[in-house]
Structures are given as C-alpha cells and as structure tokens.
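queue> pop job 88
queue> type: inverse folding (structure -> sequence)
queue> payload:
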C-alpha cells in the first residue's frame, strides 16, 4: 500500500477572500481573526495576509487527512 504525502497540500497558503468563502463570512472578518490571533496569519513581503490551509482546517475542526485528500 502506498501512502500519499498530504503535507504539501496542507501547506498551501490562502488569501483572506478564499478563507472567507470557506467560512461564508467577509474577508474583513477573516482579517480580524488573524489580527486577534484566533487564526494564525502570515504576511507576504508586500504586506498581504495569507493563511495556511492546515491552520484553517484546524480552526474549522476538520480532519486534516480528509481535506488534504480532496485538495
């Protein structure tokens, strides 16, 4: 049986708009979550916020393996 490495899929970075679509909230709400520390955020060199898929999955309380398989 072969195992698939799911780590690269979970390392994918998402924009606030992409995260907002998953939660069905506005991108501003996602930004507030990031700035408050509720959802870890990463800043690009240009100052934009990005969110790691693994962190979003954990925030949603989903099984990371299932999400990675679908990504």
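queue> result:
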């Amino acid at each position: 049986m072969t195992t698939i490495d799911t780590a690269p899929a979970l390392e994918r970075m998402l924009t606030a708009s992409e995260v907002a679509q998953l939660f069905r909230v506005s991108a501003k709400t996602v930004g507030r979550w990031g700035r408050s520390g509720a959802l870890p955020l990463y800043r690009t060199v240009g100052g934009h916020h990005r969110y790691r898929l693994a962190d979003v999955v954990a925030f949603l309380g989903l099984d990371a393996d299932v999400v990675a398989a679908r990504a």
